[in-house]
Write a structure and sequence with these properties.
- By secondary structure, the protein is mainly alpha-helical.
- The protein has helices at residues 2-30, 33-41, 45-66, 71-90, 111-132, 137-157, 165-188; strands at residues 96-100, 160-164.
- Helix content is 76%, strand content 5%.
- The chain has seven helices and two strands, in the order H-H-H-H-E-H-H-E-H.
- The chain has two domains: 1-66, no CATH class; 94-194, no CATH class.
- Strands 1-2 form a two-stranded parallel sheet.
Length: 194
C-alpha cells in the first residue's frame, strides 16, 4: 500500500512541477533576454527544472509520510534551491540599475507582473522554512529582512536589477509563509533533532 501511495505522490509531484514550471516559472524567466539566451543554450532546461522540482516535492512528501526529516535531503534541497535562487536573482539582468519605491507596483493587469509577483513569493518560501528550523519568530523577522535587504542592495549596487520595495514585501511574505509552514510541519515531523 505504501508503494502505491509513493507512486501516486510521485505522479502528483510531476504534475505540480510541470504546471509550475510550464505556466509560471519558465514564461517569467524567458522574459529576461539574458536568462532566455542562457536557457536556450541547454535544450533540456525546462525538463531539468521539472525533474528537480518533482524530486524535491516527492522526497518532501515521503518525509512527511514517514514523519521524519532527513538532514541529507535538507542539504540537497537547500543546495539546489540556493543555486537556483542565485541564478534567478543575480543573472537575469546584464546591466540594470534602478530603484522602485512603489510597494504595490505588481498590482497591474499585466500577466507578466502578476506571474513575477507570485514567483517572488514562492522563491523565498524555502528560505523562510530554512530559518524556521532554529529561529524564533523575532529572530526570523530580523534575519529575513536583513537577507532580503541584502539581496536587493546587491542587485542595485552591482547593476544586476532593481532595488524594489515591492520585492522586499513579496519576498518577506514568501519567507513568512515558509517560516510558518516549517513551524506547522515541525509539529508533525521530527525536526527538533536537526
Amino acid at each position: 500500500m505504501r508503494i502505491i501511495k509513493y507512486i501516486i505522490g510521485l505522479l502528483i509531484s510531476v504534475l505540480v512541477s510541470y504546471l509550475v514550471i510550464e505556466y509560471l516559472a519558465y514564461p517569467t524567466l524567458s522574459s529576461y533576454p539574458r536568462l532566455s539566451n542562457t536557457m536556450a543554450r541547454f535544450p533540456y532546461t525546462k525538463f531539468t527544472l521539472i525533474l528537480s522540482l518533482s524530486i524535491c516535492l516527492w522526497l518532501a512528501y515521503i518525509q512527511w509520510d514517514l514523519k521524519k526529516v532527513s538532514v541529507i535531503y535538507l542539504y540537497l534541497a537547500s543546495t539546489v534551491y540556493l543555486f537556483l535562487l542565485f541564478v534567478v536573482l543575480f543573472t537575469k539582468a546584464k546591466s540594470y540599475h534602478d530603484i522602485s519605491l512603489d510597494v504595490f507596483d505588481f498590482i497591474k493587469p499585466d500577466q507578466r507582473d502578476i506571474r513575477e509577483a507570485i514567483l517572488n513569493v514562492i522563491y523565498f518560501m524555502p528560505l523562510g522554512a530554512i530559518y524556521g528550523f532554529k529561529a524564533n519568530k523575532y529572530e526570523f523577522v530580523v534575519i529575513a529582512l536583513v537577507t532580503i535587504l541584502g539581496v536587493e542592495t546587491i542587485q542595485y549596487a552591482f547593476y544586476l536589477g532593481t532595488f524594489a520595495l515591492s520585492d522586499i514585501l513579496l519576498n518577506f511574505i514568501g519567507s513568512s509563509f515558509g517560516f510558518a509552514l516549517c513551524k506547522v510541519l515541525g509539529k508533525r515531523l521530527d525536526i527538533e533533532s536537526l
